[in-house]
Fold each of these.
Amino acid sequence: MKLKIWLLAVLALLLLASLPAQSVAFKVQPQSLTVGQSGKIIATLSIPEDRQQIFDPEDQDFFFLSATHPGLDFGKTIYPKTYKETDAGEKKYFKSVSLELPFAVKKTADYGKSSLKVTMVFNLCYPSGPCDPPDEVDKTLVIEIAPAMSNGGEGLEGPISETMLAEDREDVVPVTNEVVE
């Protein structure tokens, strides 16, 4: 009896190990930005040979990309063109599909490196019709927000202080090599 249970357990593990697995790869471009700059998050879903990802533009609950970060304004998920579309307007993706999420750095963003939480939700289906339960993959990426360059990208970085603008102030006397009597 114990041998039967052990053999069934081994068989179940072998079956699970042989199932094709999907994977999601995330990246942010560029990784370092300044206030006002735009970027994008790209998530690529690898789809097993025996499945497909279906996207219905009228019901986006089962295939999307989202992110959270207090210093970024996010746009809408950008879906790629597909080679196969159903009569109902659904788009079918095979092998792999990359979604993009555009963003812009807010003027109020804190400078420095910070975490950017990204989530991809997908729902793989078999060509015969049935679908797996919806799945979700989370990833934390690192993004760096630097101060905008104050002089066209040359020299010092960061906000301009009052002392840096001394030549424009009336209460500051320029230093020269001339002797004043």
Amino acid sequence: MIRDGSGPAIPDFPASPNPDAENLRYRMAIDSAGLGMFEYSIHDGSFDANESWYEITGLGKGAGFDRFVDRVNTSGRERLNALLVSDEENAECKLELPYEHPRRGACWISISGRRTASGKSGAKEIRFTGVISDITGKKAIEDAYREQELIQQTVVENLPVGMLVINPATRVIVISNRYAA
């Protein structure tokens, strides 16, 4: 058991002598979190994904990674392709990409993964492995928060008296022009 004093003890799992059992444990954790898991071979285009990946992307079973990339908007596609063709051996990424879902329309996808090379230097196989999640709700909250900040700033700047607003939770400070003068 691991105890760090901040909560309940966390079981200390011994290293599994069975790699299949270890993979099953990871897959169960990823599936229960609702994450889409994938593995894509840049070398030959082979692709494997769990059921959640297909649900999140809205693509039919058997759709490959290229179909996913085609539905990412242009700027996001450029960032994703730059990672895929990178010369860096173990490039990690965390991208938030605008995505055109086949049924729901515009949404946002978060993709976290790693590009790895394996094999001999002359014939290395490049793979991209990771997880995706739908972060459309998170992006909507961020947009609403930015809009509220803009409204607050506009109100304070147009007050007939000077005003200083400090929000300790967000550390947002708004100063009216008349207060600064």
Amino acid sequence: MMIRTWLLSIIQLTPLYLFFGYAVWTGEADNSRWIIAYKISSIAALLGFIVLIVKPRPANRFILAIYTYLILGGLAAYSHQWWLLRIYKEHREAALIMTVLVIGIFSTLFSKGGFLGVVTSCQLSRAKASSTLLITTLCCLAFSINFTGNTLLAGYLPFMLLLFVQRYLSNKQSSMENFNEA
């Protein structure tokens, strides 16, 4: 089960690997490489998005945000909406965290699982967990904006914190739900 979950996570992140692989790791990152990277990764993200939507359980909100970010970048590249790509370029890692925040707000307001993506019988508990994750995301966004250009501080560190808080809250929700059932 653990290997299957790990493998699924790697597969779900393939669009992001494609994006960074083409834009950054294969040569000097210039505007044309970024545009092609958005075009390539947006197709993979669209396929991943379709798979996420078809699944019966709530989608991972961070994966959903990554897919949304890449699909919007691809649509902007294909339709020559340079204003959006300029925003992405200016805000870099923070632009992705902004997408996480928007997905978080929408999922908190309009889905049973909230931002956490965990369906629970206790609405108050779900709302509290979603609010905690939203506040954490907002703090990570401010941190990311402050350190724009430093990939470690603006990208990796905020995302690691978000993933840690999300995992902690998910485990807490699941254990509370199991306790209530007992």
Amino acid sequence: MAINFNNYMQERGRKYKDQLDRTSNEYAGLHTAFKKFLKVEKEAEQTRLELAGLWEKASNLEAEKPLATAFKNLAQTIRESEEVHSESETRLREVVQEAFRVFPLHIRQQKRSLSRRTKSPVESEVPEPDLESSISGFQNKHQNDMRFSILHLVNSLMYYHSNSLQKLSEVFQEVQNIESN
């Protein structure tokens, strides 16, 4: 009975390790894609700041005061939005990207722990709850970590976009109020 139970536990451990391998590969891919996303966001931020500089230059060349003011306000709005974007990006790097980077390391640790349990058979007939609680604990921790990371990602993006929309709406109203001759 103990041999069958140990074989069962070893087979179950192998299946769980295979699942962990697949999960680790998926999260490694997610981490790589997220790094690319942040790189593209940084490049887009630089482009928007260059655009703000061009609006600023155009405002200095504009003869009509209302248009010059609108150009300056647009440039300022872009800069302020990019400050918020930069803050959001920093939080995304520190929280979300770090979670994606660290998760495969947690999986390796879980696999090592699982290997130790399945390779050294325990004489008792009740080692299953220990393995089950370990798996369950790991899954709960992972779920909470990913939940927190996704909430942080969504919150950062909402904050940036809502801030940008608010500031751009103000500039839009200002431009609409310019009287045409």
